[in-house]
Amino acid sequence: MDLLQKLCSLQAASGEEGIVKSFLLDYHVQNSAQWKVKPEIIQEGFQDCMIWKFGKPRTTVFVHMDSIGFTVRYNNKLVAIGSPHIEQGDWLVGQDKEGPVEGQVYINEEEEYQFNFWRPVERGTALTFKPKFVEDKESVQCCYLDNRLGLYVALKLAETLTDGLIVFSAWEEHSGGSVPYLAKYVYEECRVSKALICDITWVTEGVEHGKGVAISMRDRLIPRKAWINQLIGLAENSSIPFQLEVEGFGSSDARELQSSPYPFDWCFIGAPESGVHSPREKVYKSDIQSMIALYRYFMEKL
Question: What domains, with CATH codes, occur in the chain?
Fold first, then answer.
């Protein structure tokens, strides 16, 4: 879990994905010689995003690099990035021109987010939850398992992937915006139209900890049923634990794939977590292992 802990410690809310990109590029340099295939890295014109191309790709994995957080406004008031869930007194960290900042967030009398720090923090500074990584035999808990765990799974997939694309996207937690130009390249240049969304879902009354990775049959959006049935059929022929998710809310990078002019088939596949968008996100280790196994299996079979 050392790699996952390092990923969760990166301070990279939406708009600051370059921090994660630099980490991933360094990780590639240090580790890719031991992978089955060393990928081509495509990044020109993609801002802080990039695509790793392995062999002759047939399917792509989309994984977003950003997290929720806050932007400092005026008088240490905060504007949410995405949809953070806080408790009074949660700790935030960041850095402005004067140095590191660390303090607690609370909701003031005007029902605004307020940052408790001894000096004014520079306007526009991004603040993220202070990471506290807790691991036991059964689970891991920390801020930003959504979606640093998705990145962890993608890096584990990269170790064995021979043919496929891993697309690292930006801004997913705050309205998106990078997937349209990434999808254009994937479809027009690589001729790939099958996509798996490597992200983290929620524990609900129908999706539980410890029951395996969740294959989402729908969320706020509805993917093509024939494609979902194909994936479920493959999963049933494996020995990998999985569960089926059906929801009417939430979305992911898939929302921009479905609204694109390209005929993508997509499916959201992710381990379930509790404490969503808080400093206390929790995922079972067995679900992480089934997520890694299912991605490896699908990318081999599809």
Answer: 2-67+134-301 (3.40.630.10), 69-129 (2.40.30.40)
Answer whether 124's CB lies under 8 Å from 71's CB: yes
Asked if 87 contacts 278 with a C-beta cutoff of 8 angstroms, the reply is yes
Cα 14 to Cα 65, 83, 121, 171, 189: the distances in Å are 8, 11, 19, 5, 27
Residue 188: count of CB within 10 angstroms of its CB: 10
CA distance 217 to 207: 12
**DSSP structural state of residue 113:** E
pLDDT reading at 236 higher than 90: yes
Q: What is the pTM of this model?
A: 0.97
Are the C-beta atoms of residues 110 and 77 closer than 8 Å to each other? no
The sheet with strand 60-64 has its strands ordered as: 40-42, 50-54, 164-169, 60-64, 194-198, 265-270, 213-218, 242-246
Please check whether residue 110 is in contact with residue 116, taking contact to mean a CB–CB distance below 8 angstroms.
no
Residue 295 sits at φ, ψ, to 5 deg, of: -65, -40
40-42 and 213-218 strand pairing: unpaired
Write down the residue that tokens 């060393």 correspond to.
38
Q: Percent of the chain, pLDDT > 90? A: 97
CA distance 211 to 252: 22
Give residue 250's pLDDT band: very low, low, confident or very high (50, 70, 90). Answer: confident
What CA–CA distance (Å, rounded) separates 298 from 193?
15
